[in-house]
Structure formats: C-alpha cells, structure tokens
Amino acid sequence: MPEMISVEQARDLVLSHVSQLPAETVPVLDAAGRVAAVDLKSDIDISPFAHAAMDGFAMRAAQLQSASPESPVELDVIAEVAAGDTFEGDIPEGACVRIMTGAPLPAAADAVVKYEIVRNVEGDGRPGSRVAFETPAKLRGNVREAGEEARAGEAVVRAGEVINAAGVGFLAGCGVTEVPTPRRPRVAIISIGSELVPPTQVPTAGKIRNSNGYALAAAARAAGALPTMLPIVEDSLEALKVAVLEAVREYDFVVTSGGASDGDFDFIKPCVEQTGELLMTRVNMRPGKAQTFGLVNGTPVFGLPGNPAAAYCGFEMLIRPALRKMQGHSNLQRPLVKARLARDAKKGDTRRIYLRATITKDADGAYAVEPAKNQSSGLFGVIQRSNCLAVLPEGGEGRTAGSLVECILLDVNEDVCL
C-alpha cells in the first residue's frame, strides 16, 4: 500500500469497493431525486385523446381558408366544450364550437383558433353567439395530439434516469404509482474522541461538542443516504473495534471522524487493519491528508480526520461519490467551473489544496472566486459561508489575483451540466 495517493486514485479506490444497492419499491412521490432501477412504462397514450392546447374555437380549418381582415369569415357558436366534457355532434358549415384548454377536440373539427384573436359579432362568444375570424386556421393548429408524449407500453423513464419533480408528475399521468429504485445506503456515523460531548451538554474544561458527527450526518443525508449517528466512542482501540464491528453488521457504509493520524490516541487505522483489510491511509490533499479506508467484513469503513474542514473535504471528494454510486447515480462529481481569483492565494505546501471560497458571476457572465481569509481546518463557519472549493494544484506555487483556478461548486448537484 503506497504511503500517499492522489485524490483521483483515492476516489477510484473507494468507488471500486462499492456497488449499486438492491432495488426497493417506493411510492412515486418518494421517487423524486432517485434513480429508476427499471424502465417505467405508460399504461395509456399520453395524451389519451387529441385536445385543445388553449381556450378558443374548434372548427374545420377549411372553413377559414379565405379569412382575412378585409373579408372575415363569420361562424355561429353552436356548443361549448369544457375540460372533462365531450362534444359528439357534427359541426355544420358556418358553425364552430367554443372549447376550453384540455377539452377533447370534437371528431368533426381539425383545428383550434385561440380566443384572443376572434372577434365577437353577436353575443359574448358562448353558444348562440356569432364570431368573426380574420386569419386562416392552421390544420391541427393549437391541438395536442393523442399519444403526442407517449404511447401505451412505451418506456417514459429509462433505467438509470434520475427522476425529478416533473418526472413524478409525468409518471403519475402514465399510471405509474410505484417506482423500483436502488435503496438508499444506511450510513453509520461514529465520532471518536474522549474529549467529545453531545451538543446538549455545556462543555467543561478539556471537552468540546460533537459537531463533526452532525455535519457528516447532514452531508450523508444531502447525498441521499440514511445516516444514523451512533454513540461517541472514547479514544480506545478496543472500544473502537467493538463499535466498528457492530456497525458493519447493520449498515452499508461506516464513517468515522477523529483518530485518523498517527498519534498515541489515533486508532482508526489499526482498528481497520486488525478487523478487516486496510486499503488507504494518506491522500495528497489539504485539508484532509489523513484519510483511512478499508473493508471490515466486506463493508466499507472510512476514517475521516477530526478537524472539521478536513472531514468535510474528505467527505465531499471521496465519500459522497461512493454514496451516490450505491444509489445508481452515474454522475458522481460536483460540477467544475473556472474562475479568476479575486486576490492572491499563497500555497507553501506541495499537496493539492482545497480553499473554502465564494464564487460569484459578474455582469459579463465571468466567474470570480474569493477564498476565505481564514483557511484553518478547524472551522465550520467558513464552510457555511462558502459555496465552492477553489483548487490549487499539486506543487509549491500559489496563484496571483486574476489567475484562473478550478472551482468545485458545493451548492450545485452532480446532475447539473454547466
């Protein structure tokens, strides 16, 4: 096992040891944001009948062939069809039918003229009125045809496709009320440290509140997973081994924070090594060099550093893609854009650096990025106020103001194409 590997190698390593989870069936409303496990088919034609695309008047287009402002064609309104109603009768020469949006097109009609361009000659445009048309009608104009969007038996959402809110409505209209989708991974969150206390407790001397556990659980939930925060584990190899072995029996992925370095009280590496297979201990990134990954009884176990920014960056770059893969997603990385630095970014470290930063767009559509002034790996507040990670590549050189750098957009979903 190499001493240190690149971020790309680390990501590939983690991804190679996770697989798409088996499918479960959920109500269609709960399928938003999830991936279809199978092709989903409509049970009827969509739309099931030709209908008016807007409020107007239905007739045969040939009736208005000669219509012009100088010589309008006048027709008698003989009926009205509202959405949900039908008109089965004939439309004789010199007549038309008032029709509402969504109402079935009468069999005797082949066009709809929108209400706004029709002039009332007698009456208010309802049955018994007479109306004038000053332009010809287009054959099948303002008509949504039967089966225009889908045919009965046709796959309307393909396996592997992410279902969005509109897709939920589309599926409901196609009679799909339940959706098979890869189940969401159950993720155990374990915070390590004898100094940790729950947020409900006021810390005494030498103690701090367990903020990492909450941040990582929230990040797992944002990735679509089902996180569970397990009890805090003291700085003890035996206690940690017990906690990890219990977690891998119930959960699909285990994430720990703290104890990832090589100090006297850092135990996640020997824990994984002694209970399973240790695959990774160092990643060429800052913050977050100390990243432990391995398998315990076949379950992925990832040990993040205890510093908040290091844990957060490690999760974003390495764990989030894995959780998405387990749910069937094919787009696994956040969108990247290039932006000009608003100020100098010093480096002084050969590792790849992820600067917590804020990206904006100017009036010309160009991106500018301003790294936070305080890049301490112990701060959560800076990440709360950031919307991207500005990347300084490997090597000791920094970047000056105006330089182009790659930025990972933290508030944009992986499925968005920029």
From TrEMBL:
Enzyme class (EC, first level): transferase
Pathway: Cofactor biosynthesis; molybdopterin biosynthesis
Annotated family: Belongs to the MoeA family.
Protein name: Molybdopterin molybdenumtransferase
Function comment: Catalyzes the insertion of molybdate into adenylated molybdopterin with the concomitant release of AMP.
This protein's UniProt keywords: Magnesium, Metal-binding, Molybdenum, Molybdenum cofactor biosynthesis, Transferase
Signal peptide interval: none
